[in-house]
Amino acid sequence: MTTLLYQTNSYLKEFSAVVVSVIVDAHAILLDQTAFYPGGGGQVYDKGIIEFNGLKAVLKRAKYSPGGILHILDEGEPMPEVGSEITGILDWDRRYKLMRTHTAMHILCGTIFRDYGAHVTGGDMEPLKGRMDFEFENLTKDLVAVIENAINKEVAAARDVRVAIHSREEAFKIPDLIRTKINLLPPHIKEVRTVEIVGLDLQADGGTHVKNTTEVGTIHITNYKSKGKINKRLYIELEP
Ligand SMILES: [Zn+2]
User: Fold this and answer.
1) In DSSP terms, which residues pair with 44 in a beta bridge?
2) Ligand 1 centroid from CA 106, angstroms
3) Are 192 and 165 spatial neighbours (Cβ–Cβ below 8 Å)?
4) How far is the CA of 200 from the centre of ligand 1 (A)?
5) What's the gap in Å between 83 CA and the centre of ligand 1?
6) Closest-CA residue to 15 (of 2, 28, 1)
């Protein structure tokens, strides 16, 4: 298994690791540890560079696999051997934008749940852009400006964002997590990572976030779509 450095330190831009396996067919390597996020929970995977023996290989993407995080290198790039020491360098500009966007999405769903009791049903994001779906019958166009104002108040409130790792038993006692259907977690999952925007939102989450809401910057709600009587979609964008 790969040690997931990004789970405890999302600000790691560069790290050292050892190659533990080479998967020739997939043009991929497994490392003993990594700061590259493999994607999941709506946040897309990281890209970057892998350096070894004075060579540089472009990382096409990191990807989850049951045996560990696959680091898939671009076609034609050099491949390190098992046992090689490598330096992983993240495409930080892209990753930091994703961190800001991911935290913005939690601000949006935390605020909407607090103010209207509406639940999220889905979402997706790319750097500085995202969309989120809600079970929110009364979400009309008029409300969009009110919500935009409320979420930017939360950005300005400079709320800390805290990550914690709980045992399954511990996590099952946290009321906010019960609301987000934590009971649906497969039984083999023994630890639950949580991301808390202090005073606003707490959820089980594997992604990377900024440490304070001020880092998100102004959030614009750029579009609204009714996807039926109950389901409504909001689109957001962040400033560069
Ligand atoms: Zn999330």
Assistant:
1) none
2) 6
3) yes
4) 14
5) 34
6) 2
Sequential pLDDT tens for the chain (240 residues): 899 999 999 999 999 999 999 999 999 999 999 999 999 988 999 999 999 999 999 999 999 999 999 999 999 999 999 999 999 999 999 999 999 999 999 999 999 999 999 999 999 999 999 999 999 999 988 899 999 999 999 999 999 999 999 998 898 888 878 766 666 778 888 889 999 999 999 999 999 999 999 999 999 999 999 998 999 999 999 999
DSSP at 14: E
Q: What pLDDT, on the 0 to 100 scale, is given for residue 185? A: 78
Q: How far is the CA of 18 from the centre of ligand 1 (A)?
A: 29
Q: Which residues are near ligand 1, the ion (C-beta closer than 5 Å)?
A: 41, 205, 207
CB-side neighbour CA atoms (13 Å) of 24: 1
Cα 16 from Cα 14, distance rounded (Å): 7
Contact 5, 15 (CB under 8 A): yes
Write down the pLDDT at residue 175: 83
Instruction: Report the C-alpha gap between 89 and 108 in whole angstroms.
Output: 31
Report CA(205)–ligand 1 centroid distance (Å): 5
Q: C-alpha distances in angstroms, 222 versus 34, 68, 103, 133, 191? A: 35, 38, 17, 14, 37
Cα–ligand 1 centroid distance for 102 (angstroms): 6
Q: Separation of 98 CA from ligand 1 center, angstroms? A: 11
Enter the pTM of the model.
0.95
Tokens found for residue 29:
């390597």
Contact 57, 50 (CB under 8 A): yes
